[in-house]
Specification:
The protein is built from three helices and two strands. About 50% of the residues lie in helices and about 10% in strands. The protein is globular, with a radius of gyration of 13 Å.
Length: about 110
């Protein structure tokens, strides 16, 4: 059953691992300052290191249907919330946008 706890949990872990891998393998364009052992599986935070570029990322991602990626007010950057309702396909769409954004502005 797709909605059972063990299946859903493994799907959430795959989603967060996939997104963290995209961040970590971006050549430094995207950054996550949290130690790998302390990273959230549900709220993946990242930044470009440039406030204006982060704001542009959020604006452009919204026009692509990727909503609510604005980061915490105290930290800035972006935050992808990967809860039960977020399928892996949603994470893959975000990663595709991230790669396109990096090609344009990286």
């Amino acid at each position: 059953d797709l909605h059972s706890f063990p299946t859903r949990r493994s799907s959430d872990l795959l989603s967060s691992k996939t997104l963290y891998a995209a961040i970590d393998n971006s050549g430094g364009f995207y950054r996550n300052r949290v130690a790998p052992a302390a990273r959230s599986k549900m709220n993946v935070i990242f930044t470009t290191g440039n406030k204006e570029l982060d704001e542009l990322f959020v604006q452009e991602s919204t026009t692509r249907g990727l909503r609510l990626l604005g980061g915490y007010k105290s930290m800035g950057g972006m935050r992808a919330s990967i809860y039960n309702a977020m399928p892996l396909q949603g994470v893959e769409a975000l990663i595709e946008f991230m790669r396109e954004f990096q090609k344009r502005y990286g």
